[in-house]
Specification:
alpha/beta; four-stranded antiparallel sheet; 3 helices
């Protein structure tokens, strides 16, 4: 299940672009630490130092981590906490090359829609922490921007893979790819084969939500239109 592990021109500016965040009156305070993951296990182990001055946001408020890498942010029952990737650091990638820079807090889960939504995440954790690893980054680099692929069925996903993604994967020295919305065309069940296909790029992929990636048939308003995008 891809919950809290999925769910954005520089990589650091993109971190907020692909998230639909429903934040209303604050009910709780999320706390955590942004830390240097020295052993790469994703956990804050003893001896791993915090990283100061990193921006963390709930979609409305932005705070900087203190000298120990710690932060506090207000959250309600439908909030995404995310970290802005600093220069010289990398966030973890999952098996599909999707950057892991956020945590979904949705204790009651998403609504009952045609397509899957986020299951209940449970109570707010005592600490929502974000691992970073040091990397060497040049100020000059190449990225790939892919806009409006919009496959309408699985056969068209395979066509995009054959005609577009396989060629993108052969490009050298690409820092990351941004998919600029309309990843699919209204059939949100295609988001899963899209992710499975795009992992072959071999570098980070930032998927940005578009109007054809919304829960158009079920959503009552913008506050829940991105539920399936959040799930994947």
């Amino acid at each position: 299940m891809r919950i809290c592990h999925r769910a954005r021109l520089t990589a650091s500016l993109l971190t907020g672009a692909a998230l639909i965040v429903g934040t209303a009156s604050a009910q709780e305070i999320a706390t955590g630490i942004v830390f240097e993951d020295l052993n790469g296990n994703g956990l804050h182990d003893p001896g791993e130092p915090g990283v100061a001055g990193v921006a963390v946001s709930n979609g409305l408020d932005v705070v900087l981590t203190d000298d120990e890498g710690r932060y506090e942010l207000p959250v309600d029952g439908d909030t995404i906490i995310f970290v802005r990737k600093p220069s010289g650091w990398a966030v973890p990638l999952d098996e599909d090359n999707l950057p892991q820079f956020f945590y979904i807090h949705k204790p009651e889960g998403g609504p009952d829609f045609e397509f899957p939504t986020v299951p209940p995440t449970g109570p707010l954790p005592e600490s929502i922490s974000f691992p970073l690893e040091r990397v060497e980054e040049s100020n000059q680099f190449s990225i790939i921007g892919l806009a409006d692929p919009q496959p309408r069925n699985y056969e068209q996903v395979l066509w995009v893979e054959d005609k577009v993604v396989n060629d993108m994967a052969r490009q050298e020295d690409i820092r990351f790819t941004i998919v600029h919305g309309d990843i699919v065309h209204n059939d949100l069940s295609l988001l899963e084969p899209w992710i499975d296909m795009a992992r072959n790029l071999g570098h980070p992929i930032y998927n940005v939500i578009g109007n054809h990636d919304l829960n158009l048939a079920d959503a009552s308003g913008p506050e829940d239109a991105g539920e399936t995008f959040q799930y994947y």
